[in-house]
Amino acid sequence: MITAGTNQIDLLVQQAIAEFGCPPDSRVAFVKHRENHVFRVANDDGEWALKLHRRGYRSDREIESEAAACELIGSAGVRVPHPLRTLGGSYVASVGSGEGMHQATMQVWVPNASPIGDSAAILAGGPRPADETLFDLGRTMALMHRCAEQAQTPPDYERPAWDAEGLVGAAPLWGRASELPALDVRTRSLVLELEQRLRLELGALRKSARTYGPIHGDVTMENVLRDEDGLVVIDFDDMGDGWYVFDVATACFFFTGHPEAERMIERTMEGYAVERVLTPEDARAWHPLLLARALTYLGWSVARPTEEATAFHIAEVLPRVAAAGRRYLDTGRTGWPDLPVG
Fold first, then answer.
1. What pTM value is reported for the model?
2. Can you give 81-119 as a three-state secondary structure string?
């Protein structure tokens, strides 16, 4: 989080755009603040998204790895925002001074594009992406995964892991769901049991080149945009190593509350199958990864009690996780639609 005042943030922005070679009279507009501060920068040469990163969340090497991966994915036919380099050749600029140093990155702005859906509304059974969009979503994920499977990881690559420990271990990447203050005694006991079982089951999954590698890590409807030319995947902040089917589980988790969930997942996987084949091994990992994904939203909420998303996670995600979790502990299945493969 950036705790500086408005004037200090303005100075950070001016330092950042100078590092990336933008003139000082570039037009800057604040866009949003969640994990990072995001600004829109425009001048006669074009438009860019400037991100002032949450301090301490990622190392410079991790951010460099993210940018390099975006370049690689873009070369494989997936539309992603093109990252810019600083005048010194890095993808990351250090701005500020002393203890007030921050990382800054810039990428090409994606104009006239909007998210393919609203995850919260979809979970509640509201408007959902069209079948054509879901097909394109599946195909896009498959292209990313095929690229990751075939590419050589650079020697200086460094990203976190969405493995058993990163999802439900002692110190998960997004926090422990069982530490959410809103849990009552019975539900906390259930979540603890789920974490323990999923940790064992996910720990037993293979990490072969076909099943495991660099993934986006947060393929929600808000992180996939559509413009007149098709889909654009954005926000690779949580990119890391994980099972490829975890990206699919992330994209499909919010479908599980929709009355057309089965159809939506089927259409997504029809698109995926055009570019890449999933197997019964992936299908066996589906239900535990769906549950683990759901638990990450509760874990994320632990450190963010006042966030609007936390209220949504407690009111809407938690009851669904509790019901699916009890069923999973009893039967090994969540009650959510299966992953169609083959």
1. 0.94
2. CCECCCCCCCCCEEECCHHHCEEEEEEECCCCCEECCCH
